[in-house]
Design goal:
The chain has 458 residues and is an alpha/beta fold. It is built from 18 helices and 9 strands. Strand 4 and strand 5 form a beta hairpin. Bound molecules: arginine (ARG). The site of arginine has 8 residues, from loops.
């Protein structure tokens, strides 16, 4: 059995993790908001979302990822209103302006009632399709989207759908009409409230008729049902939104929008080395771009530009995924870029080491013909770890916890390194043993490659 397993090709290993009855899933993750730059907090949904998407995909399911941009509602109206009030021409804005305007506009809105009223007025105009507001919204959102796409490209993230809250705004009037017709909602002081018996009651529309986060999320389900009718929905979003998703999921069932399964995959926050929220020295949110640059600077000292690029992305992926998603963790740039310890660099170096051994041999010569003669302890340990792969993969996938797979990747590298230190692979006179050890190397590299692909590392 074991010898047979060790001879499996990459595709045959993948077969061991495939499902008998594949399904269709939506992965909703990333979700940056217009007017704000992508910051360190976006690392987790991006990494966890992509890893889960890849796990489900490699096991044979049909997967659809959607970034679900926050591109509608109050923030947008705050930005536009602020520009109108201060005579900033929307068409002259650059991305940096937007990033400065948004915090100011939002602060101003909470301090100044008159401004706040104008924000609401503009929002309802926008909701009603006002031409000028719509075209200004388009300009402002395109600006942020370009910037978002640039960083996503650098981090090697791709989405099947680049939709947002705005995508479904056109579906809302009819959705609301149907909810009323079916007696699923009632009016409460002008606001629209679900008739479902919950505490607190679930708000569907504000009293001034503007849409809430809930409203667009409900309409998004209708849209996804119509376009894809998925078997399952995964929302990879910060733990702090768990109440929202509880309300969303129960409303979906109550309104009979979908029979599929819905799951919120939450995660904790990333803190600095002192355990405080990750901020720049000036106290602003830490842009993802800056974290990337800071890591790159360290790695570029010892590596070529291209390698430093790849390693930087690996650090951004691995350091994040190796932590249990349920808890908070401290992002320690120095520790995570070290060549020793549970780091992306240690893993990348191990992979390179195996590849360089394999480069010097003709792998086809070693396909068959080996047994368990003179099995040494570190070799046996490595083999035992290899045999655990599908079990760990499935645990990681079923619990939607990538850290099991990330931990396993480290274990596999450690076991390989002991093996490499303890045994002679190529200069063994006994061909049986040499065959076996080369096969062990090949399967190790195949499993490493599968995990790299799944976790999103190059
Ligand atoms: N834009 C949201 C935020 O920044 C995340 C979107 C999550 N997806 C969703 N369908 N609600 O909090």
């Amino acid at each position: 059995e074991i010898i047979k397993y060790l001879q499996k090709s990459k595709n045959e290993i993948i077969k061991t993790i495939q499902e008998e009855t594949p399904k269709k899933y939506i992965f909703d993750y990333g979700g940056p908001n217009i007017g704000k730059s992508m910051h360190v907090g976006h690392l987790r949904p991006l990494n966890i979302g992509r890893a889960l998407y890849n796990m489900y995909k490699i096991s044979g399911n049909e997967c659809i990822s959607d970034i679900h941009l926050g591109d509608w509602g109050i923030p947008i109206s705050q930005i536009l209103t602020f520009c109108y009030e201060n005579n900033h021409k929307i068409e002259d804005l650059i991305v940096e302006d937007l990033q400065n305007i948004y915090p100011e506009a939002s602060k101003y809105s909470s301090e100044n009632q008159e401004f706040k009223n104008k924000v609401n007025e503009n929002l309802s105009k926008l909701n009603n399709g006002d031409k000028k507001l719509l075209s200004d919204w388009k300009i402002a959102s395109e600006l942020t989207i370009q910037n978002i796409k640039k960083i996503l490209h650098e981090l090697d993230h791709r989405f099947d759908l680049f939709y947002g809250e705005s995508t479904v705004v056109g579906l809302i009037p009819e959705m609301v009409e149907d909810l009323k017709k079916n007696n699923f909602v009632r009016s409460d002081d002008g606001a629209l409230v679900s008739n479902e018996n919950t505490d607190p009651p679930i708000l569907i529309l504000k009293s001034d008729g503007t849409y809430l986060y809930m409203t667009t999320d409900l309409a998004t389900v209708l849209d996804r049902e119509k376009q894809f009718s998925p078997d399952g929905y995964f929302y990879i979003v910060d733990n702090r939104q768990s109440e929202h998703f509880k309300q969303l999921f129960s409303s979906i069932k109550y309104f009979q929008f979908s029979n599929s399964s819905f799951e919120h995959i939450g995660f904790g926050t990333i803190n600095d080395t002192e355990g405080k929220p990750f901020k720049t020295r000036q106290g602003d949110v830490y842009p993802l771009e800056s974290l990337r640059e800071d890591i790159y600077k360290i790695l570029n000292k010892k590596n070529s530009d291209t390698n430093a690029e790849i390693l930087t992305n690996s650090v951004l992926v691995y350091s994040d995924l190796v932590f249990d998603r349920h808890s908070n963790y401290k992002f320690d740039i120095n520790k995570f870029t070290n060549t020793e310890g549970k780091t992306a660099i240690y893993i990348q170096y191990t992979k390179v080491r195996i590849e360089s051994v394999l480069r010097n041999i003709n792998q086809d010569q070693y396909a068959e013909n080996f047994d368990d003669e003179q099995l040494n302890t570190s070799e046996e340990n490595l083999i035992m770890t290899i045999l655990k792969f599908s079990e760990i993969f499935n645990r990681s996938k079923n619990l939607k916890e990538p850290h099991h797979l990330a931990e396993y990747l480290y274990e596999l590298c450690q076991k390989f390194n002991s093996f490499y230190k303890d045994v002679k692979i190529l200069d063994n006179k006994n061909m049986h043993i040499q065959n076996r050890r080369v096969n062990v190397l090949i399967i190790t590299i195949n499993i490493l490659e599968i995990i790299f692909e799944v976790l999103g590392m190059k």
